[in-house]
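User: Predict the structure for this protein chain, please.
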Amino acid sequence: MSTIGTTAGTAGARATGGARGAATRRPAVKEQVYAWEGRDRAGKMLRGEMRASGPTSVQTSLRRQGISMTKATKRRYKRGKRIGEKDITLFTRQLATMMKAGVPLLQSFDIVARGTSNASVSKLFTDIRGDVETGTSLSQAFRKYPLYFDSLFCNLVGAGEQAGILDDLLDRLASYKEKMLAIKGKIKSALFYPIAVLIVAFIVVAVIMLFVVPAFKDVFSSFGADLPAPTLMVIALSDFFVEYWYLVFGTIGGGLYFLLQAWRRSPRVQMAMDRLLLKLPVFGPVVEKATIARWLRTLSTMFAAGVPLVEALDSVGGASGNHVYLMATKRVQQEVSTGTSLTVAMQNSQVFPNMVLQMASIGEESGSLDSMLSKAADIFEREVDDAVESLSSLLEPMIMVVLGTLIGGLVIAMYLPIFKLGQVV
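Assistant: Here is the predicted structure, written as C-alpha cells:
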C-alpha cells in the first residue's frame, strides 16, 4: 500500500501544469451530517452523528475507532424559522452553563442542537460542531457565520481560548448579550405603541376618505346650498384619495421601503437618521442613553476579558447601534493608538456626558477601568428603564390629542352642513 501511494505521489508531482489546473478546479466534496448506529468490540450499542461525504466515509471512520457500523442515515432538516438574536443569546448561556458544569464542548453542542425546536438553529450548531470536531478552533468556527456571530463575539471567544478561560468568557459574554437584548427590547416596546397607533390612525383616515366622505358628498349634492369651507376641503381631499389611491399608498409604501434600504446601506443616510433620532424631543434622550449604555457595556466586557483597549474599540462602535457613536469611536481609537488617554479621547469626541468622562478618568487612574465602565453602564441602563416607563404615560395624552384633532376634525367638517341645515329649518 505504501509503495502504491509513493508511486502515485511521484506521478502526481510530474504531472503537467494543465493537469494540475484540472485537479485544482475539481469541486470540493460536499459533506453532510449522518446519524449512525453501531457496536463496539464488546458488543455495546452506540449512536451518534458525524459529518462525512457519504455512508462509506462514516463506516471507515467508525472502523478506525473500533466500531462496527450497522446503520447510517442522512439527517434531514426541516425548514426552520429565522435565527434571531434571542436564539444566539440563549445558545451562549446554555453553552456557558454546560462548560462550567464540566460537559465536553462537542457534547454541549449536541445537547443544544437537539434541545431546540428551531430546525435552522439545530443545523447551524451541528455545522459548527462538525467544524470543531475536525480541528478548527471555536472562534474560527464562529467566524464562518458572521450573520449570527459578530466580531465582538468571536474576539471574546478567541481570547477565552488563548487564556484557557473559555467557560468564564462565555458566561461573561452571555450576560452581556442578555443585557443588550433587554435594552433593545425596552426601546422596541417604547416605540411599538406610538407606531401602532399611527398605523391604525392612517387606516381609519383612509377608510373615511375612500368610503365615508363620498357617501356624504352624494347627500350634500341634494342640498342645493353652498357648503362650508372645511367641508369643501375634506371633499376635495377625498376626491384626490379616490382618484389617485394607488399613488398615495404606493408613494407611502415605496418611500418607507427605500428609506429603510438607504438607512441600511448608505453611510450618509445612516448618519443623518441616527443624528435625527438623537435629537427627537421625546425619544431622543431615551435612544441616547440606550446607545451610551451599550457602548459602555461592550467596552467593559471586552476590556475585562483581557482584550487590548485599541482592539476592543474595533467592536465597540458597531455594537453601540448608532452611526454617530461609531464614527466617534473611530476617532477615539485613533487618538488612543497615538498615546492619548481614553478619557481625553472620549472628551474630544463630544458625545459623552460628564458623568461618563469622570468615571472613565477614575477608572484609568485607579487601574479599574472595566469596573468603572460597568458601573456607568448600570447607571444608564437604570435610566433607560425609568425613561421607558415614563415615556408611555407621557405619550398617551399626546397621542389622544393628535388622534382627536385629526379624526375629530374630519367628522366635524362633514357634519357642519347638517348643523347649518338644521339651523335654517
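Confidence is low (pLDDT under 50) at residues 1-28.
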